[in-house]
From TrEMBL:
MF terms in GO: DNA binding
Entry-linked InterPro entries: BcepMu_gp16
Keywords: DNA-binding
Identification of the protein by name: DNA-binding protein
Length: 72
């Protein structure tokens, strides 16, 4: 899910970014930056935010749309 899709979904539910962040104990600025793409959400708290928003898969999981990974 992209940042725009996340914003649209929250808007449809009548939830602001600030409300979403506060309800989960995340700083608003961090949630906003993850959604905008300023912070990639590759690890740490930003990764947790991206996972909860549906922008990234949880660590150790393979995204559904990707095929099997081949290791040599």
């Amino acid at each position: 899910m992209t940042g725009e899709e996340v914003k649209r979904k929250l808007r449809e539910q009548g939830i602001t970014l600030k409300e979403w962040a506060n309800a989960r104990g995340y700083p608003y600025y961090l949630v906003s930056r993850v959604i905008c793409g300023t912070i990639k959400g590759n690890f740490g708290l930003s990764h947790q935010v991206a996972v909860e928003l549906g922008m990234k898969p949880a660590s150790g999981t393979v995204p559904e749309e990707s095929g099997p990974t081949v290791r040599r």
